[in-house]
């Protein structure tokens, strides 16, 4: 084995810097030597801090979510990742980012190893520079002029380039790792080093000692002396793989070192079912042994010795040896800065190789089933869709006992883990199921002419008529927390509107969601569209679901404001319908009725404080302070055990005030309420616009003019006069149910029911019409006549 090791002069984590190190069984010719000194010193008695492995090596990880437990990791950097686009020189920005990520993981206590290409490219850059310099000097001497002729650069032999580039490449890595107080060591190997048992043991011992000393080994094939590639002898057994390139080297090292994870970075997103760039190419999220027949391999990358086929062979060999593998893109500017850490965190990046096939379909397959099932659903007659929903409503009451039993299991498992408001959301009851059934029947009744309804008809010209009709949006992804009653509501709305549906519920409601989904599919089966509604049961992270922009047309989050914010942030190219906060206000005007105020405040705040339409800020006109009305409000809140937070102006009027509010933009979701004082209805409106969330806001007054001013000027999705904020609900609006309340200003706003899940398309019916006939000298003229629209069935 040809072995060189360079170490930076930085002391790792305060340990004493050692001039050189020799591992047990390492021959004198295979010493690992630093550049600091050549004095011999044994280190076997020096204590080292070691972190125990988080898992016993033997089997690869079954799921991406387990990758965060990986202790020993090999990162393989392909030539396309390390080199520049001109193949002459290194991509310094990418290398710096990779070194930073490796350093972060190393400092977390993991054991990191790099298998890197790049010596040939680095050497090519250096040799070209030397050749140009040499030629320019000779030409100057020969011609006696400063003007140089165009110089031809000879083809450079790869081994010579590697010999010239190895030291420079390592010096670069050394300088980069030094910035993170991490030492790096270089080891050059050839295929022969793995065939000789003694050399293989020596290499193994060297790597273990380096890892023990918290040094990052940087391994590369010794391209300066590497022999031609041998005949393919791969995959003959777990101990046989020829090291022909850095892919096979990385796989061999990963298995030899009992590595938990091998990350192979290339210039493609991962493994595709056909060559990347072809029309039908799809990224394979999880690849299983035996799937090779379903993959068509393209040509190899612009640089490097291997290709995707070589990477897959190496990955499967490593997987067979107990090492998990991910192949991902290390060149994309938007993701390369965090691709390694994302993989270790279990995010859906690249292609994950797994030996464990899931029991059910993948989420991608579920998305395709929802798409095709939704299209079939949209072609049903309105009466057939309504029949499905009526049947689901009947099942909710007929199967009440089974549903409540499943819900009881969820509640028992959640006891002590969930806060009281979340437990209340999780709980189902007979009355809730009855209300759900009533709501579903309302949806069924209102869905008769939802899909395909004509909104506009225009005669463009003679025998050329245009229609605008309602159509489903496509595939909806609804993510909900602790709300199993949300599942049948949303499913009914999706069925009525002809949309395919993906549902992702919280694990705290797993038993309830499972039976409710089974009942939904039973109802869908009566017209053969069972697959239109899918429940995602895999370990898919929400963030990964939000990246499926080719399968999902709209995301609807149902849950905490934090969930909604996270989804809005994670969604990549998919619109999100919803609201991140429900900061609802009630303004009590100076002309408010004493009898009405306390009832409205109590209902808005205390009836269900965890709801998004619960009251959070009470604005009181200044003239009402120290009046019987004000005292009644405060007394009622005390009786209901509502904690009061004083706004700045309210606190200034009081000698002993409640705790001053930390922020006027707070959604409490509990029996807590902010009270603030305003001088006028205009000041109340200004306060709402500054601190509200455009959800639901209320005025309490007997002055109709003041009320109308408030209704017209408050820019929120729902604005009420003398009514509780809790009326902001699809069921209470007569929509049957809602998928959520939207504060968006595009498409749908407020409680979103059936109408909000529809979009439109244009239908044009002509008879050999062409645009040129309507030109200045054409034979036809535009008429643009409005035609009567068929009356909507309101029964």
Automatic annotation (TrEMBL):
Keywords assigned: Amino-acid biosynthesis, ATP-binding, Kinase, Multifunctional enzyme, NADP, Nucleotide-binding, Oxidoreductase, Proline biosynthesis, Transferase
Residues annotated as domain Aspartate/glutamate/uridylate kinase: 71-329
Reaction catalysis annotation: L-glutamate + ATP = L-glutamyl 5-phosphate + ADP; L-glutamate 5-semialdehyde + phosphate + NADP(+) = L-glutamyl 5-phosphate + NADPH + H(+)
UniProt pathway annotation: Amino-acid biosynthesis; L-proline biosynthesis; L-glutamate 5-semialdehyde from L-glutamate: step 1/2; Amino-acid biosynthesis; L-proline biosynthesis; L-glutamate 5-semialdehyde from L-glutamate: step 2/2
Record EC number: 2.7.2.11, 1.2.1.41
Signal peptide location: none
SUPFAM superfamilies: ALDH-like, Carbamate kinase-like
Keyword NADP: yes
Stretches assigned to the Aldehyde dehydrogenase domain: 363-625
Record InterPro entries: AceGlu_kinase-like_sf, Ald_DH/histidinol_DH, Ald_DH_C, Ald_DH_N, Aldehyde_DH_dom, Asp/Glu/Uridylate_kinase, G-glutamylP_reductase_CS, G5K_ProBA
Superkingdom field: Eukaryota
Similarity-based family: In the N-terminal section; belongs to the glutamate 5-kinase family. In the C-terminal section; belongs to the gamma-glutamyl phosphate reductase family.
Protein name, per record: Delta-1-pyrroline-5-carboxylate synthase
Gene that this polypeptide is encoded by: LOC101406789
